[in-house]
Design goal:
- This protein has one domain: minor pseudopilin epsh domain (minor pseudopilin epsh fold).
- Helices cover 41% and strands 33% of the residues.
- It is built from 2 helices and 9 strands, in the order αβββαββββββ.
- Strands 3-2-1-5-6 form a 5-stranded antiparallel sheet. A 4-stranded antiparallel sheet has the order 4-7-8-9, with helices on one face.
Length: 140
């Protein structure tokens, strides 16, 4: 004697799976957006630290340039481009900055970026990086 499932039982299982997927998918999407926004904010903070440390190490000025249209960040030390990150391509994150660039003196002190704010957003998730007038970086 063969045991099998009826069509009604199969449809019930598919309906339950669809409801569970409908509930879990938006929450997973929000979590993924938050992960990408947080990762992009960490990268921006690391690029700012790289510029500051390289400026003090080499004894030259360093600049961090923000391109909101391309959602990218470039680090220039002297005439060299030390780092370049595009967040739209890699993470799907939009970037908005209150200043187009921040510079660091050979002493490590920041200038031209007093209280700069960089907001990285993906979906409903947003992370903010602040740079004080002295060049200190804070995240939230």
């Amino acid at each position: 004697m063969r045991r099998a499932y009826t069509l009604a039982e199969l449809l019930l299982v598919i309906a339950i799976a669809g409801v569970l997927l409908g509930v879990a998918l938006p929450a997973a999407r929000r979590a993924l957006d938050a992960i990408h926004a947080r990762g992009a904010a960490t990268e921006v903070a690391a690029l700012l630290a790289l510029a500051r440390h390289t400026a003090t190490y080499r004894g030259v000025r360093a600049a961090v340039r923000f391109d909101s249209a391309a959602a990218s960040v470039l680090v220039h030390v002297g005439r060299d481009t030390v780092a370049r990150r595009s967040f739209r391509d890699r993470r799907g994150v939009a970037l908005r900055a209150t200043r187009d660039s921040i510079a660091f003196a050979p002493t490590g002190r920041g200038f031209g970026g007093a209280n700069a704010t960089i907001v990285l957003r993906r979906g409903q998730a947003a992370e903010t990086v602040w740079v004080s007038r002295l060049g200190r970086v804070r995240r939230r």
